Amino acid sequence: MTDLQAGSKNWHDDWNERVERAQEMIPLLHQLRRRNIVTSIFGALLDGVTDIDIVKAHRYARRIAGTELSTVQTLPMVRELVSMDLGPASIDLGRLVTRFEGSDGTLREFLDSELAEIIGTNESKEPVDVVLYGFGRIGRLLARILIAREGTYNGVRLRGIVVRKKGDIDIFKRASLLRRDSVHGAFNGAITVDEDNDVIWANGTKIQMIYANNPAEIDYTSYGIKDAILVDNTGVWRDRAGLEQHLKSKGIARVLLTAPGKGDLKNVVYGINHTDITDADKIVSAASCTTNGITPVLKVIGDRFGVAHGHVETAHSFTNDQNLIDNFHSGDRRGRAAGLNMVLTETGAAKAVSKALPEFEGKLTGNAIRVPTPDVSMAVLNLELEKETTREEVNEYLRNVSLHSDLRQQISYIASPEVVSTDFVGSTHAGIVDGLATISTGKHLVLYVWYDNEYGYSNQVIRIVEELAGARPKVIPARVSPSEL
User: Fold this and answer.
1) What confidence score (pLDDT) does residue 15 get?
2) Which domains does the chain have, with CATH numbers?
3) Which of 130, 239, 330, 338 has the fewest CB atoms within 10 Å of its CB?
4) Could you tell me the CA-to-CA distances from 400 to 82, 408, 427, 476, 482 in Å, in that order?
């Protein structure tokens, strides 16, 4: 029996010993990261982590494996990974350790077999340029994520941000808004401004600020930007005719809209219909935060139990579109003070689901209530199923989907009587099912789904950007379809 296998049977080690092994692991994880290999433990990322973060990730394994992992098990595996000639990938140490426990042979023989498809594939690749058109709530979060992932998987890099100039101190104001955020906290790193060249430097990433009023008038190639993916997060143009203006600019190859697209534009929810994107699709939409929050859950429930019809009600945090105090607003009710009122309004998310899931056409209605919180929303899915089920069956299924399926990044699951909305600020998932709130009676099912309508949605957008760039990482071991659970 190897030390790794023995460790799984006698790992109740002293806390300080766990921390020491975690500290030894940190520089090894950094070496893997520099080679575009990101590791996790059952989905808990070990990227830019502290020793305590690593120990907590090992404890998190209880949710999946029924028992904690130990650094006695994972440290030897990380050492072996560093010694191997591996290409870019996302490697789940928790799942590899679990699989190794039931295997014969040495650790290296096991890893050579499990990682065969990425051995010797570490080829140099030029990252794809990304431009952000607009720099509001979503734009700044996209920038943070892109900067944090700079160089990961040799994938995408933020090169430019386009805004309308608002005075001589515009670039300093933009940098300050990127540096500090009242909801998501301080930027993790250093930001400086090169005023003479209209450049923001963020953790070594050079971001060109481009001031323009017309999308079609910009020559991006003059800034060294070429064949870029432009992410329009202004919401000003939502149809093909409007967004095609970006493609008239030199240096832009494709456009992604961070709002529901109109007309014949594909509305893409990553994890559900991103494989429908073709090379011919020069303009696509990332749909809305609510559509992203509910569509993955509706997909798996529909596939397992069938959905005859349903209603979606969202309690949605207020947005910048609303008034801070009562004032004129072109929209119904949105002119009333956002911080003082629950504001009943409409949402197109229920109908938009069918653009990603055609089988839901005509099955869903929806409304929204804007509530006095700055971030994190909740969708209540009131569904009439085609098959009878129980609360226990639905919750166990959704829990397994969140832990083991290829929708793990989209669907999370929690069963805690203490959580409230702020606990989900910063969630990278499209939606989080609150299992304790599930109601099921025969064919009638009510699900409560939390979602960070800013950060969770932004992560979904970045996944589409990487898909357009051909830069999504190889996942090892491969995850299974929810239909196989």
Assistant:
1) 85
2) 3-118 (no CATH), 128-259 (3.40.50.720), 290-453 (3.30.360.10)
3) 330
4) 31, 9, 19, 18, 8
pTM exceeds 0.85 for this model: yes
Give helix then strand counts, H and E, for the chain: 14, 21
Query: Comparing C-alpha atoms, which of 47, 48, 40, 30 is closest to residue 94?
Result: 40
Indicate the helix (H) or strand (E) that contains 479: none
d(CA 59, CA 52): 11
Instruction: Say whether 411 is catalytic.
Output: no
Q: Tell me how far apart the alpha carbons of residues 475 and 156 are, in angstroms, rounded to a whole number.
A: 18
Cβ 456 vs Cβ 427: under 8 Å:
yes
Using H for helix, E for strand and C for coil, what is the string for 258-321?
Answer: CCCCCCCCEECCCCCCHHHCCCCCCEEECCCHHHHHHHHHHHHHHHHHCEEEEEEEEEEECCCC
In sequence order, what are the residues at sequence separation of 6 or more whose Cβ sits closer than 8 angstroms to the Cβ of residue 137?
319, 320, 454
> In terms of Cα–Cα distance, which of 377, 376, 370, 378 is closest to 318?
370
**Strand locations in 43-140 (E):** 44-45, 89-92, 128-133
Half-sphere exposure of 179 (CA within 13 A, CB side): 13
Residue that the structure tokens 């923001």 belong to: 200
Residue type, 123: E
CA 290 to chain CA mean position, Å: 14
Write out pLDDT tens, residues 78-124: 999 999 999 989 999 999 998 998 888 999 999 999 999 999 988 77
- Tokens 């991103």, residue? 274
Alpha-carbon distance of 328 to 342, in angstroms, equals 17
The catalytic position among 49, 96, 289, 449 is 289
Provide the b/e sequence for 431-448 (b: ≥16 CB within 10 Å): bbbbbeebebeebebbbb
Q: What is the largest CA-CA distance in the chain?
A: 74
**477 prior amide bond cis, ω within 30:** yes
Give how far Cα 421 sits from Cα of 324, 409, 428, 450, 452, Å.
21, 19, 14, 8, 9
Q: Please choose, from the candidates 211, 213, 250, the residue with its C-alpha nearest in 3D space to the C-alpha of residue 230.
A: 250
H/E stretch holding 362 reads none
